[in-house]
Amino acid sequence: MMQTATAKKVVRVIPATINITEEIKKCYRQLRVAAYCRVSTKQEEQLNSYEVQKNHYEERIRSEPKWMLVGIFADKGITGTSMKHRDEFNKLIRLCKKGKVDMIITKSISRFARNTLDCIRITRMLREIGVDVYFEEQNLHSIEASSEFYISIYGSIAQSESENISANVKWGKAQSAKEGNVAFQYKYFLGYRKGEDGQPEIIPEEAEIVRMIYDRFLAGDSFAGIIKHLEEKDIPSPCGKSTWRSSTIQSILSNEKYKGDAVINKTFTENCISKKVKINHGERTKYYIENNHPAIIDAVTFGRVQEELARRSGKQKVKQIGTKTEQGKYSSKYALTELLVCGECGTPYRRCTWTIKGEKKIVWRCINRLDYGKKYCHQSPSIEESVLHEAIMEAIMRTAKQNVDVLKNLKLHIGMGLDAENTEDKSLDIQIRIAEIDAEFKKMLEAVSEGNIENFDEERANTLMSEKQQLTVQLEQYMNIQCKRENAKSRLDQIFTILDGMQNHPMEYDDQIVRQILECVIVESKETIKVVFVGGMKLRQQLVK
Fold first, then answer.
1. Which of 349, 332, 327 is nearest to 340 (CA)?
2. What's the rounded Cα separation, in Å, for the pair 116 and 111?
3. Residues 271, 162 contacting (CB under 8 angstroms)
4. Which of 57, 301, 438, 519 is the one with CA 20 to 30 A from 124?
5. What share of the chain is helix, strand, coil (3-state, %, to 5)?
6. CA 505, 511, 514, 515 torsion-angle sign
7. Mean of pLDDT over the chain
8. Is there a contact between 104 and 71 (Cβ–Cβ < 8 Å)?
9. Which residues contact 95 (CB under 8 A, 6 or more apart)?
């Protein structure tokens, strides 16, 4: 029997990276093309350019018989140095990852991305999934093997252009700051609007809200208490919302614009690539502009609020056993939580409720004694709240009923003590010298040209800048001293106004009055306390049970 010849077996290697079905389909179907365009500013002429670009790409893609338009993706007024906020660009990339785009056509590398690393990363990722990016201006396809080298070169040039633009903008802002030009964000700023002359103008109704916030804070209200009052009165926040945030109250109380001044360069942008905004802690020059616009809050009140903010945030931290947090948070409910301290160990007292024979009694107790018994504090007594309140008010009334001349002499003595703490004020001389330095430095710069740049006296310039820096620090110190003096005198005026008013009008215990006029109350023993007034006046008072 004759055997048939066996056909020779042929083995063909198919690369694992090639999908045969997809390759065949690709040969017969149209190339799916998308266009990306971007304009760098929101100016009207640039928006016109945006429309021109859209029309150009629609005509270009539709004129190619083997191309099919997927869509025109365009970002208006968005930076090219970051992928963030480029919604249309990110939408296009998502379509590419889903396999719905074969090629992207764009004007140039600078329009695609001004960040070299991002540009290379994106084009490399697209190349791996088979998507080509065609840059018209450079006549470059990213799918080609040698493209990455050229993309890195052109991308670096584009990034360098962005950095130069950023440097020019930074220089322009610095010059504007030196001239005292202040930018006002009116949209979310309570109390001011843009006037007809382009300058800030007070809104009377909103200014009253600002003053009320300052008054309540100085009267002892916490942020939460102020917020509750504002929301109960249906007063909208600066953003127009019905709810307020503690950060908003903090901002209103600490913003120097409310006293008519302005600080320029509180924050700065790290660089044109990351665009990270940082708080300026000295990395950039700051400028303080006095009397820039009408004030809602007077300088003395503003200064007292800053002192109170610092005092509340700097409260002594005391951890009590059985509590999750330290007792360092400001309490607006009871003034004595802030003021009452143990004369033996210096630890604050805490308000406690004791139950004795079925009856509840409010007492104040040294935290050390509560937690550790007599280990650290041996003699500190527990004091009934009613007895403590009566003794404090008796000390205040005794002070108020003293001879008026005694009060006046005391006020004069304290005022003289404040003046004695201050050295001679040379702030005017310093300001004149700083102006002279600026004038000399400007003259040196104006004398420099391309032909005589080697004649620029760099050593003299460094000496001038070093002197100016030292003088600026001195000027700030003088300003701080003056501010503290005015704040102290204002507080003394308030104390004596309250005391004068109480001479013939006995009052019951009041947390607000106690907080305003007392520095602290020291528990010396179970028989006596020492009441210390703001300004240093001290009075020993008996406890009567």
1. 349
2. 12
3. no
4. 57
5. 50, 15, 35
6. negative
7. 75
8. no
9. 34, 70, 71, 101
279 and 358 in a single domain? The answer is no
Flag whether 495 is in a domain: no
In angstroms, the CA 104 to CA 142 distance is: 10
Contacts of 304 (CB under 8 A, 6+ apart): 218, 487, 490, 491
CATH code, 36: 3.40.50.1390
Strands of 383-384's sheet in order across? 349-356, 359-366, 383-384
Q: Which residue bears the tokens 């308030």?
A: 494
Q: Are residues 159 and 240 in the same domain?
A: no
pTM reported for the whole predicted model: 0.49
Taking a C-beta distance cutoff of 8 angstroms, is the pair 422, 481 a contact?
Answer: yes
Residue 46 belongs to a domain: yes
Q: Which residue in this structure is represented by tokens 């003794």?
A: 391
3-class state of residue 515 by DSSP: helix
Same domain, 163 and 72: yes
* One domain, residues 116 and 245: no
Task: Record the tokens describing residue 79, joined without a space.
Answer: 């930076």
Give CA–CA dist 469/471, Å, rounded: 5
Residues 29 and 137 both lie in one domain? yes
- The token pair that represents 229 in the structure block: 């009052």
Task: Specify whether the CB–CB gap between 293 and 192 falls below 8 A.
Answer: yes
Supply the pLDDT for residue 213.
Answer: 93
How open is the CA angle 519-522-523, to the nearest 5 degrees? 155
Same domain, 410 and 364: no
pLDDT of residue 521: 92
Task: Note whether 424 and 395 are same-domain residues.
Answer: no
Average pLDDT over residues 62-67: 87
Q: Which structural domain, as residue segments, surrounds residue 511?
A: 327-401+503-545
Distances (CA, A) of 352 to 342, 346, 371: 15, 18, 13
Q: Which two tokens stand for residue 291?
A: 């009397």
What tokens does 162 get?
């962005």
Domain boundary among 312, 346, 377: 312
Instruction: Indicate the DSSP class of residue 315.
Output: P
Torsion sign, CA atoms 381, 382, 384, 388: positive
What's the pLDDT score for residue 170? 52
Rounded Cα distance between 331 and 337, Å, is 7
Q: Which stretch of 83-87, 106-110, 171-175 has the lowest confidence by average pLDDT?
A: 171-175
Positive or negative CA dihedral for 272, 278, 284, 288? positive
Locus of tokens 């021109």: 52
Domain co-membership, 211 together with 77:
no
- In a domain, residue 13? The reply is no
Q: Is 263:287 a contact under the CB 8 Å cutoff? A: yes
Distance of CA 271 to the CA centre of its chain: 18
389 or 327: which carries more pLDDT confidence? 389
- CA separation for the pair 140, 109 (Å, rounded): 9
Reduced to 3 states (helix: H, G, I; strand: E, B; else coil), residue 383 is: strand
Q: Is residue 211 part of a domain?
A: yes
* Per-residue pLDDT tens over the stretch 122-153: 888 898 898 999 988 888 888 887 777 777 67
- Tell me which residue of 517, 306, 340 sits closest to 411, measured CA to CA: 517
Alpha-carbon distance 186 to 181, whole Å? 15
